[in-house]
Amino acid sequence: MMIQQHNLTDQPTSETDGIALERDRRVLELYDQLMEIEQRLIPTGLHVLGQASEPREKADMLRMVASFDRPEVGARALPDLVAEGLGLGACVLSNGSGLQSEQELLDHERIDGVVASAIQEFLSSGLSNAVEFLETKANVKAEDSQPVLALLEKISRQLQTNNELDSLLRALRGEYIEPGPGADIVQNPSILPTGRNTHAINPYAIPSAVAFARAESVANNLLERYQSEHSSYPRAMALVLWGLDNIKTQGEGVAQALWLLGVRPVRDALNRVTAVEAMPLNELRRPRIDVVMTVSGIFRDLFSPTVQLLDKAVRLVAQLDEPVELNYVRKHVVDELQNEDCEFDEAVLRVFSNAPGNYGTNVNFMVMDSQWERDDTLGDLFVTRKCFAYGRDSRGGSLEGREARMAMDRALRRVQATYQNIDTFEIGITDVDHYFEYLGGISKAIEKRACSRPAIYLSDTLSRDAKIRSLEETVRLETRAKTLNPKWYEGMLKHGFRGVAEIESHVSNTFGWSATAGAVDDWVYTEVAKTFVLDEPMLERLRTLNPHSAHSLVGRLLEAHGRGYWDADEDALDKLRDIRGSLEDQLEGVA
Ligand code: BEZ
Ligand code: MG
Predict the structure, then answer these.
(1) Does pLDDT of 249 surpass 70?
(2) Which ligand 1 atom sits closest to the C-alpha of 241?
(3) Which ligand neighbours the alpha carbon of 364 most closely?
(4) For a FRET experiment, which of 65, 333, 443, 482 has its CA 20 to 30 Å from that of 509?
(5) Is the CB of 296 inside a 6 Å radius of any atom of ligand 1?
(6) Residue 432 reports pLDDT greater than 50
(7) Does 298 sit in the ligand 1 pocket, CB within 6 Å?
């Protein structure tokens, strides 16, 4: 790569300089994106119960674990130690604004190279050789590298052996299974060894102090991102909160909602989070954002005190004696009391979920079964399933999930941006249909009610700089890192029948993002068609391993075209139709 040596904050002195600077900026941006795809940790196949990680998978996992500070074991992030040892400074790694110059790019590559080699040295020759390697190559003192390598040694041992099969047999016999926390390995390595009885957390403990601290920069990045695209703060946002995610992160999603509202959790004498207090506006230095929260049925069941806390937070903010330009919750509640025929208790409803005992939005089923004609139907279904209000009214009476469709409609009418926290490398937005049923479903509902499609964002709170991406960027990233990545699909194809089903499911989930949010570029479908259907040897493999999924995949591509999500060329469409016909013949022959 040829890039002129200059910092991109330099002012151009002539037109040619300006063009060169712009070219370099774009090259660095491209490089940043390539690194993002290359470094993304992806599952390379399905988990086989009882089977230990493969060496390469293990090396990737250890590299990710080592890239975060682990204060609980006195370990610092390995890339920071290497950067400091090489005299490069940790800011190269985590300024969050992308690469700024060719020098930063080279520094980055140097740090990554040393870290990767140190992990290899550790895996092939053990801890003390890795300590020595880091000391010789990057001046990292032994006392600094020891704690992180000791952690890697423990994790490496635990990844090698697991009790999954034994525990399964014991569970089937009704015997005791040792409990263990549920989380992502990178987030919380103490989930190892696997094969334990996953437990949740005490709902009164969330958000934890760490989760609340981490959520600040995510909320700020989210608002900055919106501001950079719309030149103002979003007056109202809709957040999706899931149970399992808040277990794994000890309430990061909840904490992000509290930050947006500008309140902090307060603990009682028993150290339980049972109240909130408003941060002063001069400390917050921005308006309080109105937040509509749709919580999953699992969240509602597991985190009842948290549901009450979120409702309490909105009520508190709505009643603060503050200018409405700095308190959008108050602004909207006041507007509603003045202009609509409703009471304070109705105007302040912001926490919605399913009716008691019900789960899910069903938007995924409607999309998968192609059972809708008008776009609005998907958003309306979301509201029908999720318009049940939780919290307490002004007299302290529980709302107990009573139907509040009009209140939800009114709250969604004002929403300008939607958001969900992604907290794991293992499951992304095209791996399961739940992301599009929730985040896509609510975005579709808002599109009709606000008469404008909201900006849709996701975070990646596992990356060091808690990056915020638009939905479109996330779909592109997942498509490149997974669906179209031979490392991913070959890993899946090793599992035969089930592997083809996984590929088909990724394509259908991607289609779900077209249906609910129009967030999929044409090239995604074009490349999927080229990779899995129009490539004869690949099609042959798919139809041999699993003709049913191969047939569904081709059908989904044709449906994407039929519904106007994919501007495909006629030649490709003709081929797809022929292939679908021949798969139908094959399936009839099989039947
Ligand atoms: C949850 O953890 O709340 C959840 C899990 C799967 C799908 C939807 C929600
Ligand atoms: Mg199009």
Answers:
(1) yes
(2) 3
(3) 1
(4) 65
(5) yes
(6) yes
(7) yes
Q: What pLDDT is stored for residue 95 in this prediction?
A: 44
Specify whether the CB–CB gap between 504 and 552 falls below 8 A. yes
Give the residue among 292, 283, 374, 381 at the shortest CA–CA distance from 333.
Answer: 292
Long-range pairs, 400-405, Cβ under 8 A, ≥24: 400/356, 401/300, 401/353, 401/354, 401/355, 401/356, 403/355, 404/346, 404/349, 404/352
Any idea which ligand is nearest the CA of 427? 1
Ligand 1 lined by 244 (C-beta under 6 Å): yes
**Helices of type H across 414-495:** 434-435, 441-449, 471-478, 486-493
Q: Are 147 and 166 in contact (CB under 8 A)?
A: no
Per-residue model confidence as pLDDT tens digits over 455-498: 999 997 666 667 899 999 999 999 999 999 999 999 999 999 99
The residue to which tokens 């008691």 are assigned: 356
Q: Name residue 525's amino acid.
A: Y
CA distance 139 to 77: 15
CA of 297 to the centre of ligand 1 (A): 8
Which pLDDT score, from 0 to 100, does residue 3 have?
37
Ligand nearest to the CA of 243: 1
The HSE-up count of residue 162 (CA atoms within 13 Å, CB side) is 22
How far, in Å, from the CA of 518 to the mean position of ligand 2? 9
CB 242 less than 6 A from any atom of ligand 1: yes
Dihedral in degrees, nearest 10, Cα atoms 329, 330, 332, 338 = 160
**Beta carbon of 195 within 6 Å of any ligand 1 atom:** no
Query: Given a cut of 70, is residue 8 above it in pLDDT?
Result: no
Q: Is 474 in the pocket of ligand 1 (CB under 6 A)?
A: no
C-alpha 566/C-alpha 511 separation (Å) is 10
Bond prior to 287 in cis (omega within 30° of 0): no
The alpha carbon of 480 and the centre of ligand 2 are apart by a number of angstroms equal to 19
| DSSP class of 121 | H
The phi-psi region of residue 459 (left if phi > 0; otherwise alpha if psi is between -120 and 50; otherwise beta) is beta
Angle between helices 536-545 and 570-590 (to 10 degrees): 30
Backbone angles phi, psi at 292, to 5 degrees: -100, 125
Which-ligand-closest: CA of 524? 2
Res 32: pLDDT: 78
Q: Whose CA is nearest to atom 6 of ligand 1?
A: 434
Report how far ligand 2's centroid is from the alpha carbon of 573 (Å). Answer: 15
Q: In which residue are the tokens 């808690």 written?
A: 466
Of ligand 1's atoms, which has the minimum distance to the CA of residue 302? 3
Tokens of 497: 């029948």
Q: Is the beta carbon of 243 within 6 A of some atom in ligand 1?
A: yes
pLDDT value, residue 537? 98
The pLDDT of residue 31 = 81
The model's pTM is: 0.88
